[in-house]
Structure prediction request, 468 residues.
Amino acid sequence: MQIKLGFYGAARNVTGSRYYLEANGNKFLVDCGLYQERFLKDRNWEAFPIPPDTLDAVLLTHAHIDHCGLLPKLVREGFRGRIYCNDATADIAKIMLADSARLQEEDAQFKKKRHEKEGRKGPYPEVPLYTVKDAEACFPLFYPVPYGKLLRLADGIEAVFHDAGHVLGSSMLMLNIDRNGESRKVLFSGDVGRRNRPILKDPTLFKEADYIIVESTYGDRLHDDGDKIGEQLAEIINSTVKAGGNIVVPSFALERAQEILYYMNELLSANRIPHIMVFFDSPMAVSITEVFERHLELFDKEALAIIKSGKSPFDFPGLTRVSTTDESKAINNISGSIMIIAGSGMCNGGRIKHHLVSNISRRESTILFVGYQAVGTLGRQIVDGATDVRILGRKYKVKAKIVQMNGFSAHADKQELFHWLSAIKNQPRGVFVVHGEEEVSNGFADYLKDKLGWKVSVPQYKDEIVLD
Prediction:
């Protein structure tokens, strides 16, 4: 038996997840993500290493753009197969892709005007990577699959999606491949969630696998105690309100935004923070929150108990869901302390940039980061201590208080990843560590070799490996 595995994204970096699997004459992609690191964005424009029209299907682990964001380009260049994923992932991915396409169009137009004014040209200044029309062409190809259902992809190839506990609808993927009386189990971790987190159920554990492709985003550290998130958030809000500033939260529209609302609901109900105005300034996050409210079957017992009591985990007095651009701009005219939750989570685009312009040079304000900041992003520059940053073509001094709370992370940390892998009782034939910055992936691979004695490697970009 021979299975070919190709690593065409998230290999020694954290975005652009894309893995190629060939078996029994069939070709598949697991994820088709967009590169978000500035120094790797050129890869988004490269031709796909596998002709899209030769692929039989795409298996999508979840709807984050670094996992699904190149699907419109794949379809435009010839892919016509099915995109298999959980039902909630299909709903959310359509929202995310349409928004990503709109941003691609807007950024191209903005760059065109700016470059013309400055008299310079960039490699891709005027053409969007893909359009809204390209994104919409993907939608008929989505084919929802419930967790636990056996999906027959081809002769001798079956797949099962399992709950990853990372974001709503996120999946781990087990492929069962049979040929000539031999069988192999190939497990893709997707992004591994955390145990005992609000809203979602815990990640699925597995007893056996022959090959494992595992993420390592936080494979070098331990997260803050999740039980202290409310306490830390309350301290940040109270101190910022006392200083007379605003709390600005760059937030991913999927999961992180909903978790913030969940904790704000708890703190306000307990009167642990002032009842300030909270602006949910992300139309995409608002739409995704509505998807959450349609998929209660994916919630954990605690979240369901809140709903059964007649309340919503995602709403409270003083919360305003902002829709229009004019409403977003008007937020900056409000006096007194407020909280603004806006995308994007890494500050690469969206409305958060305008709120940063208004607050990043105010000593009394706080910029609160609640998610991973990839190398090369504006968010990473800020959390790494930049004294000035370029936003919307202009430089601004960083005077606001910068806080990063890792306790919000939807990614498992080093200990949690080890716990997930330790459930495997057999000796895998091979483990491939992906979706992590190079030093982190290498360190986590060494840790697994030492602790478990397994054969572990860290693939390079474009590596192709034959599995026996």
User: Anything to note?
Assistant: The CA atoms of residues 193 and 411 lie 5 Å apart.
